[in-house]
Fold this protein.
Amino acid sequence: MSTPSFDQLLEAGCHFGHLKRKWNPAMAPYIFMERNGIHIIDLYKTSAKLEEAAAALKSIAKAGKKVLFVATKKQAKQVVADKAQSVNMPYVIERWPGGMLTNFPTIRKAVKKMTAIDKMTKDGTFDNLSKREKLQISRQRAKLEKTLGSIADLNRLPSALFVVDVLKEHIAVAEANRLGIPVFAMVDTNSDPSNVDFVIPANDDASKSIELILDTLCSAMAEGLEERKVEKVDQQAAGEDDADKGARRERRRISRNNREDAAEETEVVAEETTTEEAE
């Protein structure tokens, strides 16, 4: 697992914060200095926190758990969608559906409704509807796909939440905090890091900065998923070896029993022969 160097973070613009008058005092430990009225983030702390978050996400992915990526700001949408898809994780890049975590069963019902519409299309039921009904259902399906299509495979609550800009996604962070779901987030100088479990102090407005941070985290998760696959293969091989050993032990036991039975039969025949000769 590799993390970006200081120069890479600098080149991506991860050190640029917000104007001094917009800062949040809780971010003071992560601010290096002020220049031209703009706060500069301490990239050494960014690197350390990024490495810590990457290690935690790697272990989550290795355990086969899901991480929900959330970013609805324009410059982060496509980057988050691409990176989340690369590691097969759910994501939200449109408006955050209120109660998505705290009222998860209702969200699942909406996803099932989308699946039911797809089933209607496949079995021919959709073709028997009137033109008006088809139009209404198609619009409903498109709306559901836009907001919930990326979480269609999320059958249970995620094990962690990754957020770009906690200020904008404060509802998602609040829901995760309420349910005790760990929050990983890129936190800029205008945000409050107190509700975030794994803070990554970095510029959350530049697409290059967002891409570099996400690339590092998703690479770590990909490593975790690969290690999980290797462990599964090893376990299957070990299981097959145990089965082979068990079969060999069973064959030896049967062979030993057969030899003992043959020996007993020989002894019986010998005794009967001796008895007959004596008579």
In short: The chain has two domains: 9-101+157-224, 102-152. The radius of gyration is 31 Å. The longest strand covers residues 31-35.
